[in-house]
Amino acid sequence: MGRLIELYGLKTPIRKTGNYMTSNDMYGISLTFLRLADPQWLRYLQMPTDAYAWK
């Protein structure tokens, strides 16, 4: 993945790993890239949260 990210010139200021969305008895990975329409959203995504799905 590192090579593809570099090849396409993608920036990844936030990286989250964990079991955020799982499937029963299935293996594999899921990658999600989000294009921020407004740079201010990055600040919001980096803020602390009590949301269960982001812990």
User: Gyration radius, to the nearest Å?
Assistant: 14 Å
Strand percentage = under 5%
Oligomeric composition of the shown chains: single chain
Helix content: 10-25%
* Largest β sheet strand count, sense and barrel closure: none
Indicate the low-confidence ranges by residue numbers.
Answer: none
- Total number of strands: 0
Termini separation comes to 24 Å
Q: Which sequence of SSEs, written as H and E, runs from N to C? A: HH
General shape: flat
Q: Could you say which structural class the secondary elements and strand pairing correspond to? A: mainly alpha
The total of helices stands at 2
Organism: Sporolactobacillus inulinus
Protein name: DhaK domain-containing protein
GO molecular function: glycerone kinase activity
InterPro entries: DhaK_dom (IPR004006)
Can you tag this structure with a few keywords?
DhaK domain-containing protein, 24% helix, 55 residues, mainly alpha, DhaK_dom, single chain, 0% strand, glycerone kinase activity
Question: How would you summarize the topology of this molecule?
Answer:
Layout: H1 2-7, H2 40-46
Overview of this structure, please?
The protein has 55 residues and is mostly helical. It has a domain at 1-17 and 32-50. The protein has 2 helices and no strands. The protein has helices spanning 2-7, 40-46.
